[in-house]
Amino acid sequence: MGKCLDFKGCGFDNRDEARFCSQCGLPTGGTVLQGHYEIQSLIGKDRGTATFQATDRQNQQAVTVRALIPRDTNARERDNFLQDAELAVSLSTHVSDPRSIRVIDYGQDGPIVYMVKTTGTTPQSSTPQPSPLSRIINRLSTDLFPQTPSPGGTGDEETTQIRIAIPTGRPQTVPPPRKTPVPAVHDWLAEGNLAYEHGDYEQALMNYDMTINQDRSSVEAWGGKGATLLHLGRPEEALQAYDQALALSPRDPECWTSRASVLHDLQRYDEEMYCYEQALTFDPDYIYAWSGRGMALAEKGYSEEALVAFDRALLLDSQQATVWQAMGDTLYSLQRYDEALIAIDRALSLDNDQASLLDTKGNILRRLKQPEQALALHERATQLEPNSATNWFDKANDLRDLRRFGEALNDYDRALALDPTLAGAWYNRGNVLAALRMFEDALNSYDQALQYDDGLISAWYNKGSLLHELQRHQEALAAFDRALALDVHYIAAWNNKGLSLFALGRLEEALAALDQATSFAPEEPDAWYNKAVVLDKLGRKQEAITCRDWARSLDQQAKQA
């Protein structure tokens, strides 16, 4: 006893009489669990568990002990371990073949929970025959007791060799004995996982189906099939696959979270949120459920609730660049730019070559009136992802703010060549053309923007203003009316509609439009000046003077402010 058996991972020097390591909680050499199993050496560690070579002191037989590492596991994991152990022991009682690896005992001693299995030694005098239950036992206990090759490598794969007598004094002409070929055993699940990782989804689907044909209780195969079908654009079938997985493992937070992803694609948001709640019920610390829930909330406009979910995810794992990015995007949508910048910088510290992060940081800096710094980031983003229309669009916006209009036009055109449906790019292109006084070209850009998004209020307003500038007043009125149909409180649209009506000689209608502007924005001097002009034209001189005086007073207040 004394030194921890995990020399590499722990190596703590305990007092000589210590049965368990004070640092990691594993048993020390010579510890006897429950007065029965004497620990001799550490075989290996894997995902929160440790495997030991041990001796059953009752019959002096070699056994293997599998234990959870106390330092790396929680109470719930220990309870689940003991439940699995109880089931494995129950199934093993039906296995009478001494050659089979069986789970023979389990329990708790000190800080550890453990299971005990036989070594499954094959007698030399007989050819081993697999137990009909050995596959079930091994499948149930695969995470707890990984199979280790027996010494000497003998077993089912060793074939009988035929000896041929060679007469004395005659050269050997008979070729060396040949082994009977062993049929290849396909691990369809492993092949499916590999194909999925390589993006070969059709092949992955075939392999998962082969796995399911062999074992319909494979939760991993059903889950892999669901993920693959989602990639293949078959969400309804993917949902059925995840339902099968959950029927087999209803407390699996990963399955619930994956099912939520499918429901998101199907736009069944209430059911999606229910799945995240189920996942977190079974594992309140499942980070992917928190992050997925946050992203769903952010997309539905529940930004504050989304930030709470992202906070929970990052408390569990602060190294998740995707979650930092989602938090930054959400804060950006709330116009909390300083906080958004902090979140994006955290994401970039974890992944500094991701174009979307550079793009978002550039947009934040532009909002903070730092277009030069924003431009440098967007240039790098376009280098990393030259086929992203969004990157070129955002770079063009920086150039527009810097009044480098010619370069901005080139980049808007680059963006639209990649995605001609990008309404924002058509709209901002129109603004740049208007600034260059290329009004007809600007109108064409606004029309293109409205073709892809006829709810773009600013495009209707800017189109109306250009038409008014070109003295196409009737067309301008139609554009202003479309803007006001979308936002009845659009003060500038009421003001400019009044000017177009005035130009058409429709004075009473012009006055009504300007009345709307002054009632919605009584502090706006331009509307009052324009209203004074119309009143004067109508011969209502005293009212015109009052409006003009009020407009001058507002101007003076603005200058003093």
Please describe what this structure looks like:
The protein has a 6-stranded antiparallel β-sheet, covered by helices on one side. The chain has helices spanning 75-92, 134-140, 188-197, 201-214, 219-231, 235-248, 253-265, 269-282, 287-299, 303-316, 321-333, 337-350, 355-367, 371-384, 389-401, 405-418, 423-435, 439-452, 457-469, 473-486, 491-503, 507-520, 525-537, 541-560, and strands at 32-33, 37-46, 49-56, 61-68, 103-109, 112-118. The protein is α+β, with helices and mostly antiparallel strands and 561 residues long. The chain contains 24 helices and 6 strands. The protein starts with 31 loop residues before the first strand and ends with a helix. TPR repeats lie at residues 219-252, 253-286, 287-320, 321-354, 355-388, 389-422, 423-456, 457-490, 491-524. It comes from Dictyobacter halimunensis. This is Tetratricopeptide repeat protein.
Condensed summary:
It is built from 24 helices and six strands.
Report the portion of residues in β strands: 5-15%
The proportion of residues forming helix, as a percent range, comes to 55-70%
What structural category characterises the helix and strand content? alpha+beta
Shape descriptor: elongated
What's the number of helices? 24
Described by strand count, sense and barrel closure, the largest sheet is: 6 strands, antiparallel
Distance between the termini: 81 Å
The SSE order reads EEEEHEEHHHHHHHHHHHHHHHHHHHHHHH
Compute the gyration radius: what is it?
Answer: 37 Å
Secondary structure tally: strands: 6
Chain oligomer state: single chain
Question: Biggest sheet, strands in spatial order?
Answer: 1-2-3-4-6-5
Give start-end ranges of low-pLDDT stretches.
121-183
Mean of all residue-level pLDDT scores: 85
